[in-house]
Amino acid sequence: MSEVAERWGSRRAFIMAMTGAAVGLGNIWRFPYMTGENGGAAFLMLYVMFVLILGLPVMMAEIAVGRAGRRTPMQALSHLAVNNQRSPHWRWIGLMGAVTVFFILSFYSVVSGWSLEYLFDSVTGRFAGQSGAVIGQSFEGFLADPFRIIFNHTVFMLMTMTVVAAGIGGGLEKLNNVLMPLLYIVLFVLVGYGATTSGFQDALAWLFTPNLSVITTSVVLNAMGHAFFTLAIGACALMAYGAYMPEHQSLPKAVLTVAVLDILVALLSGIAIFSVVFSQGMDPASGPGLMFVTLPIAFADLPGGSLWLGAFFLLLAMATWTSSINLAEPMVAMVKSDRMSRSQAAMLVGGGVWLVGLPSALSFSTLKSWYLWGDGNFFDVVTTVPTDIFLPLGGALIAVFAVWVMDRDEVFKALGGSNALCQTWLWLTRWVSIPLVVVVLMAPLIKSWLT
Ligand code: TRP
Question: Which neighbouring-strand residues pair with 376?
Answer without folding.
Answer: 373
